[in-house]
């Protein structure tokens, strides 16, 4: 399974056994704001206007609009007709169209946005830029398993240890986002500490009243700038990694 990201000019249809994973590099998007703002609902535009002026506002606007474009393409409807609501645990979801239900998840860090969508079970995605100012061992002590903390301690090289920390963190966040229980699922309740992951199984012990769950987790190749991970319920889905064509008119 290729880990390369492909550039596209036209959005392909979402196949039944496929996961589309989109990378959006925002950077300076000032000239795109008006065009993408027109794809948002009134409520979303109000939310955007409440964001801090500059990168935060622009990134919310374009990220949300791109999500609408991708969901509209997958469901065969206009981007402005997509209904995005919050589920029982607050996880965003969209209404089924013609009997087809699309799962999706969004992650962003600095200028990078990742959007994953598919129709074969729950999914979650996460991306983080490496922050050298973070006390990674302090964060790990509060959020990782004893096994994961021990493995981090055993890495002598500071840069390798830091990257391993972000690999663990993004894997865990992707699983939590796929699971949908939010804060009810503790990051320290499950272990993701193999050196590398390519759709490796991770079992969750669950909470009282919930059966165990199994997710398949893979690291994402984002170069040296960032670390990312994708979590899926299905291990058989085809992953199509693409770069979103921001300059296209929708």
What's a quick, concise take on this entry?
The chain is an alpha+beta fold and 250 residues long.
Explain what the structure shows.
The chain is α+β, with helices and mostly antiparallel strands and 250 residues long. The protein has helices spanning 33-37, 42-50, 55-75, 136-143, 146-153, 158-179; strands spanning 6-7, 18-25, 84-86, 92-94, 103-109, 112-118, 123-129, 198-204, 213-220, 226-232, 238-243. The protein has two domains: 1-120 and 237-250, 4'-phosphopantetheinyl transferase domain (Ribosomal Protein L22, Chain A), CATH 3.90.470.20; 122-233, 4'-phosphopantetheinyl transferase domain (Ribosomal Protein L22, Chain A, Alpha-Beta Complex), CATH 3.90.470.20. The protein is 29% helix and 26% strand. The strands form three sheets. It has a five-stranded mixed β-sheet with strand order 1-11-2-6-5, with helices on one face. The longest helix has 22 residues, at 158-179. The model has no long low-confidence stretch (mean pLDDT 90).
Tell me about the biggest sheet? 5 strands, mixed
How much of the sequence lies in strands comes to: 25-35%
How would you state the average pLDDT, rounded? Answer: 90
CATH class wording of the largest domain: Alpha Beta
How many domains in all?
2
CATH architecture of the largest domain: Alpha-Beta Complex
Strand arrangement across the biggest beta sheet: 1-11-2-6-5
Q: Compute the gyration radius: what is it?
A: 18 Å
The CATH superfamily of the largest domain appears as 4'-phosphopantetheinyl transferase domain
Report, as a whole number of angstroms, the end-to-end distance. 30 Å
Give the SSE order as H and E letters.
EEHHHEEEEEHHHEEEE
